[in-house]
Design a protein that fits this description.
By secondary structure, the protein is α/β, with parallel strands linked by helices. The radius of gyration is 16 Å and the shape is globular. It has a single domain, classed as Vaccinia Virus protein VP39 (Rossmann fold), CATH 3.40.50.150.
Amino acid sequence: MAGLGIEDEAFIRGKVPMTKQEIRVLTMVKARISPTDVVWDVGAGTGSMSVEAALLANHGQVYAIERNSEGVSLIEKNKEKFGVRNLTVVEGEAPDALKGLPDCNAVIIGGSGSHLSDIIDEISARLKKGGRVVINCITIQTLASALDYLRTHEGDFSYEAIQVQINRLQAVGAYDMAKAINPIYIVTGEKK
């Protein structure tokens, strides 16, 4: 069984975007997933984050919510490849797809389909005290929405945000050159 920080190449990918290894590791650290936690992965894509979460919550349950049928198929394939039996794939769009799920200890948001505020409203009602929501923001608009929501709900959440830029060295002839991975903001809210 793999540990935290599975190599990107180990996942079955297709054409669906995937969160890179270094960002997955940082997201898991911010989510503080425990072995018995219930975790929601909203906008799960290929399921790379869901698999990592399922390995951490090995006596808990992870729900991968994805609206794209190709993504749903890839999550199922990655679930099988990594043998994570505590991962349930939920096909649908959040926040509606969250309605039947059990209350949670941690939520990871990788995609929100422009419904971030509505999704966090649903999460806020269902996230246990001390639970964490971790929002990976690729665009400035998502970052602004996440920060605005958490600021206006400061009675419900404490929050922090970091900006991460990863560069991987790549051999170019006799030299090594930095190859940038898109920068990302990781916003973490903790339920008061």
